[in-house]
Amino acid sequence: MRVLSANECSDWLYERGIGLSPRNYPLVREPEVLEFPIPHHAGELVALAYMFGDMEKVARGGGILVIREWSIGSPGLDALGHETVKRMLGMNGGEVDTDQPLQVELDGSESALVASLLLQSMIFGWDAFYVPASGAFLIFVSHDEVAYVAAPNPAFGEDVSVQFERLSVGTVATPYYLLQAKQSVIAH
Description:
Structural class: alpha+beta
């Protein structure tokens, strides 16, 4: 695990065909985008986070996780979340500015950490995204209680939909296309 600067993160993403908006939203080209409502039941929330972690295991090779906005709720709850994430990453208080996005490069052995950090983002209502080193997909978790998976390969999107349906969380993934997803990302 390594914390990246904004420039290092931007360069890493650019090499995989992903841009960053001025507000640190990921911009992708021509993928199918699936939308997943973030469940309110704790067990379903954990299942969704670990489905995302399993996607990383298939991709193998690590990637970048960015918590782009993690001071947007209650200051007391956010502080608890900040401390939780810092402990998960083995950091001390002075290493991270919580007013700035946290950009972390993870290696292939840290897929459980991907799921755990995405889970923290869903619990605390933070915006976060993950891109594997292969660039095969992007997971975006929004504070608006929805998660998106974007992939340029439609067959990959179908596989993700099947996995989601197997979770039995009572909701169904809805395909969205780039224009709709891009507009919702830019609107933030």
